Amino acid sequence: MNIGFYPGSFDPFTNGHLHVVKSASKLFDKVIIGIGLNSTKARHFSKELMEEAIKQCLIDENLSNVDVISYDNLSIDAAISCNCNYIIRGLRNDMDYQYEENLAQINEELSNLDTIYIRSGKFGFISSTMIMDLINNDRDISNYVPKTIIQKLNLKK
Hints:
Strand order of the largest sheet: 3-2-1-4-5
CATH topology: Rossmann fold
Number of helices: 6
Radius of gyration: 15 Å
CATH superfamily: HUPs
Shape: globular
CATH architecture: 3-Layer(aba) Sandwich
Number of domains: 1
Largest sheet: 5 strands, parallel
CATH class: Alpha Beta
Number of strands: 5
Mean pLDDT: 93
Strand content: 15-25%
């Protein structure tokens, strides 16, 4: 069974993230979204709340081969503990690629897990940081964040 692990802070989970998950769900028998800790960022939404919101989004999208976990260790360690074969990473642009390729090389050296890149497609311009800027300035985010996430987090459209 091929199991992919899609790690990230998902703070919040965007349509770009959802696009990557939908694509991965077609490629893998099972996909596990891992909500991890990013030591360089302060969370806006608790991991528990985001996990609940993403799970509901997966139900609404009929993505039955996708699950969500939270973890506090290295992404590769969480992936190994879930019996994953691959790490999944979303790419928005060429700058993402450079960063992700360096990370993939370290991850492979430490774990022997290969990384699969999936483009964020038409949502490549969306970042969680951009979403937070829009939220903080009372702007509409409904084109960038799944409806379920907006509802679960009690965000303004």
